[in-house]
Every structure is written in structure tokens, then in C-alpha cells.
Design brief:
499 residues; alpha+beta; Spore Coat Polysaccharide Biosynthesis Protein SpsA, Chain A; 8-stranded mixed β-sheet; 20 strands; Beta-1,4-galactosyltransferase; Galactosyl_T_N; Nucleotide-diphossugar_trans; transmembrane
């Protein structure tokens, strides 16, 4: 071996020693950091347990007539996790909507409850369906869900939690309220929150809780069965202690969207982790096609004090600060009535503490131009606003995007706007006798429109539905309001309240 070869060999050995030393040091660092992580997780778990012991829900007295009872007869074995009754993949038709009397539930108890007779259940499960104006979807879901749960040998009760008022939907408040009401009913081992428009395609996706919160619906046909957005939306499964440790959902999200992301933050902050279903490949769902009625870009009345979407963006991400004080522990509601039927138990939840028969808000300037918000219930009508435009860029969001190019006659526009309900606020003239539908009211006087406004007409028909909070009502006996200027302090406003 030459001297050069000897030097290269020595250098190679030195490099190997350095690499081995680095690997050894890396292992020590990894072991240390992992130990610190485990200690931190254990500390968080102990903290959560202490919080749970002190939490008022853990001491809530239950109804003396429990809806389910654990069957521990010695002759009965424990139900298998993968029941022999399972059939696997199902053929789901989202267009099939059964009538109420066509929905088969087997031998359910009053209130939509069932438990197996040939084995004693592993858990008692509460299924909570947050609900508002989706009757056809509810029928389709119940028709699919009852048979699946019974083939799984899952002991369950189904609760439909409906928001009583006709304002914007608040999924977080509905779910927090229903959770508290469910725990008054029975000592459930597991709570599942189930969107009403999602139908399971396989009964091997088991509706029974695990040691961590589970995202039961990771694969949806709408997203080509690929992971989507949040890891904790659609259908979620938690033990009561999981939901309590996360302090439930936020109560700040009025309308559709983003509350699931916030809930994922809350679970991540807790001592628990979001996990996948045990039978992941079978966690497939079909979503019933629909338009979101309360998409947050479609709000006509914006309340910056109660809706997190209108708070500064940096506040939204401060979930760590918010989640400890705002959520399950701060939810305010009233359960107006409980109705128990063959298919489910119905909670009628009132989310607003203040109930008024009539409320009018007037924005005024120099005593002439006014915009009126009136909660007094009246029939809908169309108010013609002369010398008024809604530019195309102001009046469209994704819900009505497919109508962007349509020019309709007056009768056609009125008929279509009536059909769309809260998703249409009126229609603006574009060419003589032809109109375009509008989803967002942004009224501009014809002499105050920007140069790039592509609406050629000179008047607008505004949909006025007094008493419906989805609409701003224009005062009929006053001159045209200029909506772009209707923001304090430009306009003063007054409230008139009548009990």
C-alpha cells in the first residue's frame, strides 16, 4: 500500500468515526427530546384529567330513565368490533329520498335508540346531527344510518339538534348545546357529530370511539376520495372527555365554513390527537349535492361583534387564547322542547337570549336617505329603486356564478329570485327590459358608479322580506340609499325596540 493510499485509508476511518459520533450524539438528543415530549404530554394529560374532574358536565345528574342500559348477562359475549353482520360496500344513491314512513329502523326504542340483544355492547354511542332546514337530507341519512349501526352491533341513540330561529346557522353553538343536553340524558361512552348531507358507503367504518378523537369521514366522493381541507370536519367521533378537554367548538362562527378548522386547532391543543378510522379504506362517504345556504360571503347583515370572520385575521389564529375561555364552557342557549319519535330524539335549540317581536334600525344622513332593517314579519315584495345600479363585480359570489351570463325578463327574474330564496337579494336592469340576478346588495346611485361598472341599466328591484334577517329592507317612502356610504360614522343610526 502506497503512502497516499495509507493517508486516504486513515482519512476514511476518521470520517467514519466522526459520522458514528454524530449518529451517537443525535440518538442522545432524540432520546432526550422524546423524553421531554412524553413528559410534556403526560403533564398535559394529567392537567386535562384534573380539569375533567372539576368540569361541571362531569357532575351533571342524568335522567332517571336512561335510554340505554348496558347488558352484561354472563351468557352473552361482548360484541365483536367487526360484527359478522357487516356486508361491506353499499350502493348509495344520493338522489333517493324516502318518505318518513318508508324509513326502516328495526326494533328501535322511542327516541331513535337501539342496542343488540345477542351480545353486550362495547359502548353506548350518541349520534348528534346538527340540523337546519334539510329535511330531505335528514330522511336520506336516517334511512342509511339506522341499518348500518345495527349491523355493527353499535348501541346508539340518534339526536337531531335543530336551531330554532331562522337566522344564520351556528354549527358550533348547536353542537355544544346538543352535547350538554345529551350528557343529561345518559352516561354515553362515545359522541359522534354527523353532518346531515353525508351518507356512509361502507358499514365496516365502525361508529365506536377510540382512545383518541377520530375523523370518521376522510374520504368523500366530492373530493375524489382524497384527503381534504380540515382533518376534523364532516363526521367526527370523540369520547366526552375529548370534547370537554378541547372545550368544545367555538361559538363565534355564524354561517358556513371554517368552524371545523378551528375545532382541529382545539383538539391539537388538547392532550389528545386526531386519528384515522381503524378501517380507513372503508371510511368512504357520498355527499348529497346542495348549495350552502349560509356561505360566509353571502351575509347581508354583518355582526362584527359576534362573528369571528369579521374580526381581525390575526385573532382567528389565536385559538390557543380563545379555546380556553370560549366554547363549551361559555355556550348560551335554551332547549325549548325535547320530542322523542321512532327515528330520533329532537332538540329544539334557541341560541339567542333576546327575543323581540319588532326591531327597526335606521341609518340616516341629513334626514333624507335611509336604509331600514326591520324584523317585523311581512310578505316579501320587490321595491323598485330608480337611478340605482348594482355593478356585476359587487353582486356575484360563487353560489350564483352559473347565473352570471343570464339575461332574464322581469317576470323570469322575479320567478327565479323567488325560487332561490335567501340566495337572491333582487335583480338589476342591464339592458332595457332585461335583468341580472344579484346575491349581494351593493346599491350605487347611477351618478356615483365607478367607470368600470358594466351594468348599463338605471334601476334595480330590491327584494324586501321584512322579518327575515337574511335581507336588508329598504324604506319604501324615502329616497334612494347609497349603500357604499352607509357605514358609521358617515351615517348615524337608531334602534326602535318593541316587546
Amino acid at each position: 500500500m502506497t503512502k497516499k493510499e495509507q493517508n486516504n485509508f486513515i482519512l476514511l476511518l476518521a470520517r467514519r468515526r466522526v459520522i458514528l459520533m454524530l449518529l451517537f450524539l443525535g440518538a442522545i438528543v432524540f432520546t432526550y427530546t422524546d423524553s421531554v415530549r412524553l413528559l410534556k404530554e403526560q403533564e398535559e394529560t394529567n392537567r386535562a384529567k384534573r380539569d375533567l374532574e372539576k368540569h361541571p358536565l362531569s357532575k351533571t345528574p342524568k335522567s332517571p330513565q336512561n335510554v340505554l342500559s348496558m347488558n352484561h348477562e354472563a351468557a352473552l359475549p361482548e360484541c365483536e368490533y367487526n360484527s359478522p353482520k357487516l356486508v361491506g360496500e353499499l350502493q348509495i344513491d344520493t338522489k333517493f329520498i324516502p318518505e318518513w314512513d318508508e324509513i326502516e329502523t328495526g326494533e328501535t326504542r322511542i327516541g331513535g335508540c337501539w342496542q343488540p340483544k345477542d351480545c353486550h355492547q362495547r359502548q353506548n354511542v350518541a349520534i348528534i346531527i346538527p340540523y337546519k332546514n334539510r329535511e330531505e337530507h335528514l330522511r336520506a341519512l336516517l334511512n342509511t344510518l339506522h341499518p348500518i349501526l345495527q349491523r355493527q352491533n353499535t348501541a346508539y341513540c340518534i339526536y337531531v339538534a335543530e336551531q330554532h330561529d331562522d337566522g344564520r346557522f351556528n354549527k358550533g353553538v348547536v353542537m355544544n348545546s346538543a352535547f350538554k343536553e345529551v350528557l343529561k340524558e345518559h352516561d354515553y361512552d362515545c359522541v359522534i357529530f354527523h353532518d346531515v348531507d353525508m351518507l356512509p358507503e361502507d358499514d365496516r367504518n365502525i361508529y365506536q370511539c377510540e382512545s383518541n378523537p377520530v375523523h370518521l369521514s376522510p374520504l368523500i366522493d366530492k373530493f375524489d376520495y382524497k384527503p381534504y381541507g380540515t382533518d376534523f370536519g364532516g363526521i367526527t367521533m370523540l369520547k366526552p372527555e375529548h370534547f370537554i378537554a378541547a372545550n368544545g367548538m367555538s361559538n363565534l362562527f355564524w354561517g358556513w365554513g371554517r368552524e371545523d378548522d378551528d375545532m382541529q386547532f382545539r383538539v391539537d391543543r388538547s392532550p389528545f390527537n386526531v386519528t384515522k378510522p381503524v378501517n380507513y379504506d372503508q371510511a368512504r362517504y357520498k355527499m348529497i349535492p346542495h348549495q350552502h345556504a349560509w356561505i360566509f360571503r353571502n351575509f347581508k347583515i354583518r355582526d362584527s361583534t359576534t362573528d369571528v370572520r369579521f374580526l381581525p385575521p390575526e385573532y382567528l389564529v389565536k385559538y390557543k387564547e380563545r379555546s380556553t375561555v370560549e366554547g363549551l364552557t361559555s355556550v348560551s342557549y335554551k332547549n325549548l322542547r325535547i320530542e322523542r319519535g321512532r327515528l330520533f330524539t329532537h332538540f329544539d335549540l334557541e341560541l339567542r337570549e333576546l327575543v323581540v317581536d319588532s326591531l327597526q334600525t335606521e341609518f340616516t344622513s341629513s334626514g333624507s336617505n335611509k336604509l331600514l332593517i326591520d324584523t317585523t314579519k311581512k310578505d316579501c315584495s320587490y321595491v323598485k329603486l330608480e337611478n340605482t345600479r348594482i355593478c356585476e363585480g359587487y353582486g356575484h359570489t360563487s353560489v350564483l356564478k352559473y347565473l352570471r351570463k343570464q339575461l332574464l325578463s322581469f317576470n323570469g327574474a322575479q320567478k327565479k329570485c323567488d325560487e332561490l330564496g335567501y340566495m337572491c337579494t333582487g335583480f338589476a336592469e342591464d339592458t332595457p327590459g332585461k335583468y341580472r340576478l344579484r346575491e349581494v346588495t351593493q346599491l350605487l346611485s347611477s351618478d356615483n358608479t365607478p367607470k368600470n361598472c358594466n351594468t348599463e341599466g338605471d334601476h334595480t328591484y330590491h327584494k324586501s322580506c321584512p322579518g327575515d334577517q337574511s335581507f336588508i329592507q329598504v324604506s319604501e317612502d324615502l329616497t334612494i340609499p347609497i349603500a357604499s356610504q352607509l357605514t358609521p360614522p358617515n351615517y348615524a343610526f337608531t334602534h326602535r325596540l318593541q316587546d
